[in-house]
């Protein structure tokens, strides 16, 4: 096996870059639901697309969301301490792209209709499910913060085909039966 130098001529960490690339290639094969995670409160309104969302426990009902600390929305989530996970349906790919970065916040929210449950975080009309949450603990890990959340209210939308992100693309998932 040929060993790679730890750094290239420019002093960049090539081993680290290769490991990140390999990790991302692996993760691209791990299909995940697509969500828009929103917040509102004293620090203002914000939202971003997230595939790193996971159930933690059903008692108390809790989930986690991983958010990159370099995201423009990061400070707003950390300050507000509440969030709503809006799980997208097939057909909402455009919204996922809009909330996936670089678009001004008002433009992101103007593209859909919103209401609120208990915390005041925006709940998306037409989402498959909405999980209104209070952030109970934040654990820094690598580039991301893992936000552990207590689920205060769940909204169930229409039973529609789901949306997953797999192999760097969106795919619809049919309802069985
Ligand atoms: N968890 C995340 O932070 C995450 C997840 C998906 C997409 N994204 C963003 O969308 C861009 C495009 O993603 P893609 O799937 O088309 O191609 P990609 O090759 O950049 O990523 C492939 C997979 O690796 C994981 N990933 C990507 N960036 C990550 C990060 N910074 N931290 C942890 N995991 C990460 C995700 O599971 C992603 O689906 C990414 O470069 C990233 O900026 C971030
Ligand atoms: C399908 C898909 C899935 C994810 C993302 C993107 C896309 C397209 N992004 C990136 C995230 O949405 C993006 O960085 C934010 O919108 C913040 O961007 P701005 O810094 O506001 O431009 C993302 N970011 C993050 O911190 N955690 C995550 O789980 C995900 N998942």
TrEMBL record:
This is FMN reductase (NADH) RutF. Residues 27-172 form the Flavin reductase like domain. InterPro entries: Flavin_Rdtase-like_dom, NADH-dep_flavin_reductase, RutF, Split_barrel_FMN-bd. Its EC number is 1.5.1.42. Belongs to the non-flavoprotein flavin reductase family. RutF subfamily. The lineage of its organism: Bacteria, Pseudomonadati, Pseudomonadota, Alphaproteobacteria, Hyphomicrobiales. GO terms for molecular function: oxidoreductase activity. The gene is rutF. It catalyses: FMNH2 + NAD(+) = FMN + NADH + 2 H(+). Keywords: Flavoprotein, FMN, NAD, Oxidoreductase.
């Amino acid at each position: 096996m040929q060993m790679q130098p730890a750094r290239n001529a420019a002093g960049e960490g090539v081993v680290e870059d290769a490991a990140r690339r390999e990790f991302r290639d692996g993760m691209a094969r791990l299909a995940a639901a697509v969500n828009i995670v929103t917040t509102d409160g004293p620090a203002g309104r914000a939202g971003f697309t997230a595939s790193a969302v996971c159930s933690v426990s059903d008692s108390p009902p809790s989930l986690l969301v991983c958010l990159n600390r370099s995201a423009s929305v990061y400070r707003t989530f950390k300050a507000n301490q509440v969030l709503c996970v809006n799980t997208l349906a097939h057909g909402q790919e455009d919204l996922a792209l809009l909330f996936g970065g670089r678009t001004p916040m008002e433009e992101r929210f103007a593209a859909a209709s919103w209401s609120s449950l208990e915390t005041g975080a925006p709940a998306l009309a037409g989402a498959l499910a909405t999980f209104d949450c209070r952030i109970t603990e934040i654990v820094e890990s690598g580039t991301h913060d893992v936000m552990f959340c207590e689920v205060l209210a769940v909204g169930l939308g229409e039973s529609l085909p789901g949306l997953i992100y797999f192999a760097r693309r969106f795919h619809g998932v049919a309802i069985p039966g």
